[in-house]
Each structure stands twice: as structure tokens, then as C-alpha cells.
Specification:
With 409 residues, this protein is mostly helical. The chain has 2 domains: 7-190, MFS general substrate transporter like domains (Growth Hormone, Chain: A, Up-down Bundle), CATH 1.20.1250.20; 206-396, MFS general substrate transporter like domains (Growth Hormone, Chain: A, Up-down Bundle), CATH 1.20.1250. The protein is 79% helix and 1% strand. The protein is built from 14 helices and 2 strands, in the order H-H-H-H-H-H-E-H-H-H-H-H-H-H-H-E. Strands 1-2 form a two-stranded antiparallel sheet. The two termini are 25 Å apart.
Length: 409
């Protein structure tokens, strides 16, 4: 793995550029979308939340069949088409004026995004040797955070302007970012492979060990709504720390991942090192939750210190868990059904997006310190269960197909 924050020239660098381009658009979209739908489109906040919940539910359901399509028709062409579909879905938001059109556009957006993630993972698996995939995914995660930070800054300018034209400009920027992403993906070599193991009926759901690994990973992904929702609610409802600290902790997390994710992933080279990294992440995450809990009922400055310390531990756990889960997601999947399996593994992100607000509100705001300890305990248990689940997954017949994917120029 390279020591540089920039991936090696060739397909790896093109994949990183594609990630950077569309993450800039996404960053701007994330910070402005809620206000756009409520202030410009005129939807009630409750209807926006309902529409997005429906959309991401649909997205989680179609991710696997779209990943299967990438396996059968080729991941590059499928990824390009889904990037174009995402651009079209974002552009449709520009003309949405009612609840039903909003739900339909949001469903199209979530479906295209879920399928695109699966197809890109399958494309990466076809173009990059197995030993280099986790390292590249660490580069892509760093690139993602950098793009989101730039996009969030652009979105902040639109929020400051507060005009309809500024919001429309952000959505147009996001649509263009996916057009550029499609153009970059088109520059990559095509990947063709013979799908020896045909998927029937339940498909990946028949692979019970992989289903268990995905479930455990979903439990570990509860860290995602923790930073965006749980900690801000905790700061404002349960501590004396200033509310702006939530934003500062988000910036701390983003910068740490940009700088250290590649380094943290360097030691993850196989299943054994992946499960060790995930076990360590569970221990560090429990410590993080305990430190966060100490910020309640103390002076503002003590609360700030505890929150910063908890955030540092949290991002260390995040980087370890990410590196381990990337390795497991690829190495435990059959090479000729990579899109289908990555589509299923990716549903963990969607589930945590849907369930995270409920879990964070109930555990942290409702229960306080016991809620923090329960959250940390659940994540510790999931991290330690990953080892036996991985051994179960590798105890069965080999998932390797007769022929491996090959790039075609």
C-alpha cells in the first residue's frame, strides 16, 4: 500500500477522482436538502421525513437486484448508467412541487444511489487485486470525506444566501457531479466475467454466514447516526457544553479520517487481521461511549474535554471498523457475484439511516448514561461475534468461481 494519500495512477486513481467529484456534490446536497424541501418546495418537515424513510426503504430493497445486474451485465456499464440515473433523479428535485412527486423522485434517487454503490464495489473488485482493495477503500474514504467537506462549504454559502436560486444551484451542482462521475467511470476498463454460480430465489440470503456478518456490521454502523444525531442531541439536552461543539466534533472526525484512514487500514490484509481490527474497534467504541457519558452533570469545560476525548476514541474505532469490514465484505463474497453481495452488505448503511434516529433518541436522550453503556456494550458484543461468524463463513465450500474477473480495454 502506498504511503501517499493519493492512490496509484491507473484505475485506482480514476476511481478516487470519481469518488471525489460526486462527494463534493453530495456534501452540498446533504447540508441544504432539508431546508430546500421545506422552504423552497414547501413540504412540512414531517412529510419530508416520511418521504425520505420510504425512499431509503425502497433503496435498500433494490440494492441487491441492481448489484446482481452489475454481475450479469458488467459493473462498469451498470455503474455509468446508475450514475446517470442519480444525476437525473437529483435534477428532478428542481421541478418537484408536491409530496407525491417528491416521494417518487426520492425513491429514484435512493434506488440509484444504492445500486451505484454496489456496482462501483463490483467494478473495484474486478479492477483491483484482492490484496490492494482494502487499501484503495481507505483512500476512497479519505477522498469521500475531503469531497464532503468541500461540498458542505459550498452548501453553507447557499444557506447563507438563503435564496431559491442558491438552493437550485446546489442541486444543479450535485446533478452535474454525477454526470462527471459517469464520465470518469466510463474511462475505466470494462470488466467481464462468467457468472458460474447463478443466483436463484433468495440469492445472497441463502448464504447465512454472510447474512450474519452483514447483520453484525449493521450493529457496528450505529456509529454513523451517533456523530450526526446522537452527539448533537446529547450535547444540547444532557450537557452544559456549547451547542456549536457538535459541529466542531464533526469537523474533527472528518479531518481525522482524511489524514489517518489510509494508515489505519495498512495492517488489514486478510480475514484474521480484519477480525482483530474489528474487535479492537469494539473495545475502543465502548471506551468512547463511557467517556461521552461522563460529560453529563459536570461543568461546561469538563464536559467539553470529555466530549472531545470521546470523539477522538470514536473516530479511532470508526477507522478500525471500516478497514476490517471492507476486507470481510470482499473476501467473504464469491468473486462472480460481487455486485449482488456488495449490494446486500451495503443495506447496513440504509438500515442505520432509518433506525439510527429512533435508537439514538431512545438510548441517549431517554436513558442517559445507561443508554451510552448499553450502546457500547452492543457494539462490543457485535465486534467480538464477528470472529466466529467469519470462521463459519469460511468453513463451507469455497466461493471462488472457476474464472476470475478480467479487465477488458
Amino acid at each position: 500500500m502506498t504511503n501517499s494519500l493519493v492512490p496509484p495512477a491507473g484505475p485506482q486513481r480514476v476511481l478516487a477522482l470519481a469518488q471525489l467529484v460526486n462527494s463534493v456534490g453530495d456534501g452540498a446536497y446533504y447540508v441544504t436538502s432539508a431546508l430546500y424541501f421545506t422552504h423552497v418546495v414547501g413540504l412540512a418537515p414531517g412529510r419530508v421525513g416520511l418521504g425520505l424513510a420510504v425512499a431509503w426503504t425502497v433503496g435498500s430493497l433494490v440494492g441487491v437486484p441492481l448489484g446482481r445486474l452489475a454481475d450479469r451485465r458488467g459493473p462498469r456499464g451498470t455503474a455509468v448508467l446508475l450514475a446517470l440515473a442519480t444525476a437525473a433523479a437529483v435534477a428532478s428535485f428542481l421541478v418537484v412541487r408536491g409530496f407525491l412527486p417528491f416521494v417518487l423522485a426520492a425513491c429514484a434517487y435512493a434506488s440509484a444511489q444504492s445500486g451505484l454503490a454496489a456496482a462501483r464495489q463490483a467494478l473495484l473488485a474486478g479492477l483491483v487485486p484482492a490484496g490492494e482493495r482494502t487499501g484503495l477503500l481507505a483512500h476512497l474514504q479519505s477522498t469521500l470525506n475531503a469531497g464532503l467537506a468541500v461540498g458542505a462549504g459550498l452548501g453553507g454559502l447557499a444557506l447563507h444566501a438563503g435564496t431559491r436560486a442558491a438552493y437550485l444551484g446546489v442541486f444543479a451542482l450535485d446533478a452535474v457531479s454525477f454526470l462527471l462521475c459517469a464520465a470518469l467511470l466510463l474511462r475505466l476498463p470494462a470488466v467481464t466475467h462468467v457468472a458460474v454460480h447463478r443466483s436463484h430465489g433468495l440469492g445472497v440470503l441463502r448464504d447465512r454466514p454472510y447474512v450474519l456478518v452483514t447483520f453484525l456490521n449493521t450493529m457496528l454502523l450505529l456509529r454513523m447516526p451517533l456523530l450526526s444525531l446522537g452527539i448533537p442531541l446529547w450535547i444540547t439536552e444532557r450537557t452544559e457544553a456549547p451547542a456549536w461543539l457538535a459541529s466542531a466534533l464533526f469537523v474533527l472526525n472528518t479531518c481525522a479520517v482524511m489524514v489517518f484512514q489510509v494508515r489505519m487500514a495498512r495492517g488489514v490484509t486478510g480475514l484474521a487481521s480484519a477480525t482483530r481490527a474489528i474487535r479492537r474497534s469494539g473495545l475502543v467504541m465502548l471506551a468512547s461511549c463511557a467517556v461521552f457519558a461522563l460529560s453529563s452533570g459536570v461543568s461546561p469545560w469538563v464536559a467539553v474535554g470529555a466530549l472531545v476525548a470521546g470523539a477522538v476514541l470514536q473516530v479511532v474505532a470508526e477507522m478500525q471498523q471500516s478497514a476490517g469490514s471492507w476486507q470481510l465484505a470482499f473476501e467473504l463474497a464469491p468473486a462472480d457475484r460481487m455486485g449482488e453481495y456488495q449490494g446486500f452488505f451495503g443495506t447496513g448503511v440504509t438500515v442505520t439511516r432509518m433506525m439510527g434516529p429512533l435508537v439514538m433518541t431512545a438510548l441517549l436522550v431517554g436513558w442517559g448514561t445507561p443508554g451510552w453503556l448499553l450502546l457500547g456494550g452492543v457494539m462490543l458484543a457485535a465486534s467480538y461475534a464477528m470472529g466466529p461468524a467469519t470462521r463459519w463463513a469460511t468453513a463451507g465450500p469455497s466461493k471462488e468461481p472457476v474464472r476470475q474477473p478480467v479487465p477488458v480495454n
